[in-house]
């Protein structure tokens, strides 16, 4: 995460939000939660959860003023005495959006944290998190003849299922949020329906999105070109290498260095344009490259050539050193050239 410091928790409240489709209901707390004995667990959990360099902001069409969560959060920052009331409003609103059959009920926590720092600005922040999966621990109890164990289910102190960290800055453009969603199979209801947020189009977002588009094109859209799996991996490697070796991105330069072939470049340009239109992605053709976004995307760029169940070939560099062929018996093979054996 960039220059961010999390301060001290000032308020905490816990509600239960069920699945509206199942009629689970909502259980409100009407008083603050005593966190004196759990502060040493909750604050590290918040510190360890929100590490991404990608930030979001509230939005709504036609105007951000119609976003309910934006209004609830604004009210708390304007008047901390409304914390309990607005946390209940948030729980009620989340319940209204929890109508997908796969959404699990769980505890909704809202915390107010003071004396945080975002970049060079000292600000307060609000944390909202939902715990849907429980962990089991063994509780030791004294009995007449010794000790006994009992399994107890509770909230995880290692990770959050869903959460957002909202900094009290840039209110006019929707505040600044760091968001986590480790259970995103329910149609993105946490980000899209409940929070209604969109990425802030900074260098991290630009880098992450463009590498994602490139990976999609190379992996799934090259069927019209007779390109082997090893050549596909080589293109993926060259894509990442471009971003690692440049501090600024230039689309035309990237296309020439990575794809080289005119017909391949033209095909990529058509795919890129279509992808942006269909997914409503706005990207610049020149931007500063985010090293953290490159590091994240590099992890998911496939560099392994899997041959049946017998061999995995890791390809990191020059595609000229690996050749594909078929022998006289129709068996496929790869020929690999190398200098040193480790």
Summarize the structure.
This protein has 342 residues and is an alpha+beta fold. The protein contains 9 helices and 17 strands. It is globular and about 75 Å long.
| Secondary structure tally, helices | 9
Overall mean pLDDT score?
Answer: 88
Bulk shape: globular
Decide which structural class fits the backbone: alpha+beta
Distance between the termini: 37 Å
Q: Give helix % range.
A: 25-40%
The low-confidence parts are: none
As a whole number of angstroms, the C-alpha radius of gyration is: 25 Å
SSE string: EEEHEHHEEEEEEHEHHEHHEHEEEE
Largest beta-sheet characterization: 7 strands, antiparallel
Instruction: Estimate the strand proportion.
Output: 25-35%
Number of strand segments: 17
Explained architecture:
The structure is a single chain. The protein is an alpha+beta fold and 342 residues long. It has helices at residues 39-49, 68-78, 83-97, 189-195, 203-220, 229-245, 251-258, 262-279, 291-298, and strands at 4-5, 8-17, 26-27, 56-58, 106-118, 121-131, 135-143, 146-154, 162-167, 176-181, 197-199, 248-250, 286-288, 304-307, 311-314, 322-326, 332-336. Strands 1, 2, 3, 5, 6, 9 and 10 form a 7-stranded antiparallel sheet that branches. Strand 7 and strand 8 form a beta hairpin. It is globular, with a radius of gyration of 25 Å. The model has no long low-confidence stretch (mean pLDDT 88).
């Amino acid at each position: 995460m960039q220059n961010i410091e999390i301060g001290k928790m000032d308020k905490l409240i816990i509600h239960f939000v069920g699945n509206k489709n199942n009629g689970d209901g909502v259980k409100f707390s009407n008083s603050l939660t005593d966190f004196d004995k759990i502060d040493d667990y909750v604050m590290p959990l918040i510190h360890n959860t929100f590490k991404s360099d990608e930030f979001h902001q509230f939005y709504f069409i036609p105007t951000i003023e119609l976003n309910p969560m934006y209004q609830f959060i604004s009210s708390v920052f304007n008047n901390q005495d409304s914390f309990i009331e607005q946390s209940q409003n948030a729980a009620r609103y989340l319940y209204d959006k929890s109508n997908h059959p796969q959404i699990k009920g769980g505890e909704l926590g809202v915390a107010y944290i003071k004396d945080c720092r975002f970049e060079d600005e000292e600000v307060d922040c609000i944390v909202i998190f939902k715990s849907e999966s429980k962990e089991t621990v063994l509780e030791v109890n004294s009995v007449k003849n010794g000790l006994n164990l009992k399994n107890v289910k509770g909230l995880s102190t290692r990770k959050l299922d869903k959460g957002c960290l909202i900094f009290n800055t840039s209110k006019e453009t929707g505040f600044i949020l760091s968001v986590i969603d480790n259970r995103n199979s329910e149609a993105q209801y946490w980000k899209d329906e409940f929070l209604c947020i969109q990425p802030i189009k900074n260098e991290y977002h630009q880098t992450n999105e463009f590498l994602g588009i490139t990976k999609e094109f190379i992996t799934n859209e090259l069927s019209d070109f007779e390109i082997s799996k090893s050549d596909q991996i080589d293109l993926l490697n060259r894509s990442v290498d471009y971003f690692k070796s440049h501090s600024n991105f230039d689309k035309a330069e990237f296309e020439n260095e990575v794809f080289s072939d005119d017909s391949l470049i033209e095909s990529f340009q058509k795919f890129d344009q279509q992808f942006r239109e269909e997914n409503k992605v706005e990207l610049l053709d020149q931007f500063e490259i985010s090293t953290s976004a490159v590091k994240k995307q590099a992890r998911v760029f496939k560099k392994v050539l899997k041959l049946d169940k017998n061999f995995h070939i890791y390809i990191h560099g020059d595609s000229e050193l690996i050749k594909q062929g078929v022998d006289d018996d129709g068996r496929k093979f790869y020929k690999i050239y190398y200098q040193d054996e480790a």
